[in-house]
Specification:
alpha/beta, six-stranded mixed sheet, four-stranded antiparallel sheet, 10 strands, 24% strand
């Protein structure tokens, strides 16, 4: 594999505070993600999925191990890693264009270049005609489109997505899954997508990583050898969904 990202033997221990004991969130977690690869991470609640993503993003420090992107050690947040959150995290005082241009603005790009970038990604996520609306005027699906555009506007090498569709209704979630696949096919960034939804993982990913119950480690990795677009009614799809669900259920029983 031509690896874009290497997560090597990561462990994370949160120290004791007041009466609570120390908590180990991750233990010896290793993973490689290839150029342009779409990887989903699933596992029981509290297994450390979000902590792992934060360490890759540089928002959290590992207690042990290392993360390398393009051969460079990750030690802090950087524009080469785009982060998309479940709660959208848009700036309410900025309109759609203002949100998308935030990263390029922080890099002091000229106004004309910022405008060109925002036009490109607003168009890519299907938000033309809404450029000057504010987050309060947008639906949940529209907000998440803007959040994806904002992440892509920094031209990251990898997109990190923490349950980005978790707060959406079922119909909007299906629409956004298809939109994300369209965007991924056009932009071809590597993606790590954290979700609780096994069906979503099988629908989206080229590989699905199952984590153990906390402390989180790799329990199994499932290649999804199904062509796109995928049918949730396909026998192979159902078989993989059940196999991965059973693997997670085994971990839940151990909690």
């Amino acid at each position: 594999m031509n690896s874009k990202l290497i997560v090597d033997n990561i462990s994370k221990v949160f120290p004791a505070r007041k009466m609570a004991t120390a908590t180990q969130a991750l233990k010896n977690f290793s993973l490689e993600v290839g150029n342009g690869e779409f990887v989903c991470i699933v596992g029981p609640s509290g297994c450390g999925k979000t902590t792992l993503l934060k360490i890759i993003a540089g928002l959290e420090t590992a207690s042990q191990g290392s993360v390398r992107l393009n051969g460079n050690k990750v030690e802090a947040p950087g524009p080469e890693r785009g982060m998309v959150f479940q709660d959208f995290a848009l700036y309410p005082w900025r309109d759609v264009v203002g949100n998308v241009e935030f990263g390029p603005e922080m890099r002091y790009l000229p106004r004309s270049e910022r405008s060109e970038i925002s036009q490109k990604y607003v168009s890519l996520v299907g938000m033309e005609g809404n450029e000057h609306k504010y987050p309060a005027q947008l639906s949940g699906g529209m907000k998440q489109r803007v959040a994806i555009a904002r992440a892509l506007a920094n031209k990251p090498d990898i997109l990190l997505m923490d349950e980005p569709f978790g707060s959406l209704d079922a119909q909007t979630r299906f629409v956004m899954q298809n939109e994300l696949l369209r965007i991924w096919n056009e932009d071809r960034k590597a993606v790590i997508f954290v979700t609780h939804n096994v069906e979503e993982a099988v629908y989206l990913a080229e590989r699905v990583v199952v984590m153990t119950a906390g402390p989180g480690a790799v329990k199994g990795i499932y290649p999804i050898a199904l062509s796109y677009p995928r049918s949730r009614a396909d026998h192979g799809f159902i078989s993989l969904r059940e196999k991965i669900t059973d693997s997670i259920t085994e971990e839940v029983k151990l909690i």
